[in-house]
Each structure stands twice: as structure tokens, then as C-alpha cells.
Amino acid sequence: SAENVALLSDALDKLLPARNIPLFLIGYSGGGVMAMLLATVRDDIAGVVTIAANLDTDLWIELQAVSPLAGSLNPRERAESLGALPQVHFFGGVDTVVTPEVVMSFIHALPAGAPYRLEPVAGFGHDCCWERGWEERVTPALRFLRAAGAEP
After folding, report:
1. What pLDDT, in 10s, does the model give residues 101-123?
2. What pLDDT digit, counting tens, does each position of 68-86 carry?
3. Which segments of the chain does DSSP mark as H helices, in order?
């Protein structure tokens, strides 16, 4: 919700010595959603990495056949404002919670030329295995963010 995004933004303000420090945010699942939403309200987010994040919550609700999320914001609806943000999105090849099509729906909503990278990981589900080989995956992702213009 907008209130939760504002609370997290306030928490970042309290943790940071100065707001002019560019940040990379990394978020898993709903944390990835929050990272993307934070990037829509802050000017110090230099890049975002998401892992198994439901970046189109409306499609996710439909595919999971669950009740709508009351008051929740959908990153897909804000994709246009995220078009200049360097971003990397990891998703599991066998994830049945956040399926690849949920991530792809968000990607298709980004403006042309948006600096993003998709990282499908074969054999990974929603809860399984993300910690395995993380350093080997995150290092190239951070290199991509930097090459795309992000400065942490």
C-alpha cells in the first residue's frame, strides 16, 4: 500500500546518513515488489534487483485464484515511471507461486529502451535454492546495473 511504501521510505531516511547516497535495492518476493515501489517515490534508488517478485500483482492474483489484495499497489501500473531505472529480475523456471508470466507482464509494460535484464533460473521454485550460488548470480547483476548507468 502507499502507506507501507511511505513507512519504508521513512525508515530508509532514518538509516541513511544523507539522502544523496545512491542505493541498490535487492528484494525477494514481496520485498522485490516493495523495492520497485520504493523506486517510484525516491530519487536515490540507482538500481533494483528482484528475486521471484510478483511484479504484476493483478495477474498474480488471477493466476493464483486468490482474493484481491486490499489497498495494494501494483508495480506493473507504475512501469512507465520505472523506465529509466536499471533493473534485474530473477525468476525461477519452476516457480508456481510467481510464474515467469507475472514477471514478463511487468517487463512488457516498461517503456521501449528500459535498462532491464531478465535472469531465469532453471530448476528453481519460489522457495527453493535462491541462496545457492547467489554470489555468482548477483555479481553480474550488479555489473549490469552499473553498466546501465546506476551508481551505488
Report:
1. 999 999 999 999 999 999 999 99
2. 888 889 999 999 999 999 9
3. 2-15, 30-41, 57-64, 100-109, 134-147
Q: Per this entry, what is the length of the chain?
A: 152
Instruction: Evaluate whether 56 touches 17 at the Cβ level (below 8 Å).
Output: no
What is the Cα Rg of the chain in Å? Answer: 15
3-state helix, strand, coil in the chain (%, to 5): 45, 15, 40
Beta-bridge partners for 27: 50
Please identify which residue in the block is written with the cell numbers 489484495. Answer: 69
- For the entire predicted model, the pTM comes to 0.91
What would the grid cell of residue 130 be? Answer: 535462491
SS3 category, 44? coil
* Cell (9 digits) for 96: 508456481
